Amino acid sequence: MGDIRGLSESAELLRLLGALYQQGAGQPAFTDDIHPVLRCVQGESGRSESNRFHFDASFVTALLPIEVPDATTPGEQGNLLVFANRRRIRRTVLANVIEKTLIQNAFTKRLITLGIRLHLLRPQRIRLVPGNLYLFWGYRSLHASEPCPPTTRRSTLIFHYGDPHAGSLATALILAFNQHRARRATQSSQQAA
Q1: Sheet containing strand 142-145, strands side by side
Q2: Which superkingdom does the taxonomy of this entry point to (predicted)?
C-alpha cells in the first residue's frame, strides 16, 4: 500500500493530472487530492463486475494496469471499453446525479451490453498493457471493463483527480453516505469471516 500512496502523492503525477484538468475544464481543480483505487477482479467477480458502464465522479482518470488476463477469447480479455467524451460538465450536482442514475443501473447495463454484442454500439476497445498509463476524461466518458475468464485475474490501479462538483453540500452528503455504506460493508464482511 505504501507504493500506491507514494504514487498518489507524486509531484509529477499531480502536475500531470492538474494540467489535464486545467486544459479540459478551463480552470484549476477545487482540490489537489488524488484518490487512488486498487481494483482486482478474479473468478466470477470478473464477470459480475464487467460491463458496469459508468461516468466517474472525477474529471480526469488515470488507469495503470498491473495484471491483465492473457485470454484469447474476444470479449473476455478484460479490455477497457470507452464511449469517449459523451457529456459536458453538468452545471449542478442534481443534474449529474439524475443522469448517472439513468445510466448506471442494471437495466441500462443490459441494454448497452446487448447493443455492443449486436454491433449497434461500438465503444473504443482498449487492450491494456501492464505498466502503461492510460489517461481519459472519466467524468465525460462512459466506460467499463470487459469480462475476464473465471480462471484469470485483472488488477488495475486507478487515480481519480478533480471532482467538478467538489465543495458543494450535495457532494459532501453523497460522499459521507458512500463512506458510511463502505464501512458497513467492511464490518459485515469482517463479522462473516
Answers
A1: 124-126, 80-83, 142-145
A2: Bacteria
pLDDT tens digit string along 130-167?
999 999 999 999 999 998 888 888 899 999 999 998 87
Q: Torsion-angle region of residue 57: left (phi > 0), alpha (psi -120 to 50) or beta? A: alpha
User: pLDDT (tens digit, 9 = 90+) per residue, 34-75?
Assistant: 989 888 888 777 677 788 999 998 999 999 999 998 867 676
Q: Are 86 and 43 in contact (CB under 8 A)?
A: no
- Give the amino acid at 138: G
Helices H / strands E in the chain, number of each: 6, 7
Q: How far apart are CA 145 and CA 126, in angstroms?
A: 10
Q: Which residues pair with 54 in a beta bridge?
A: 143
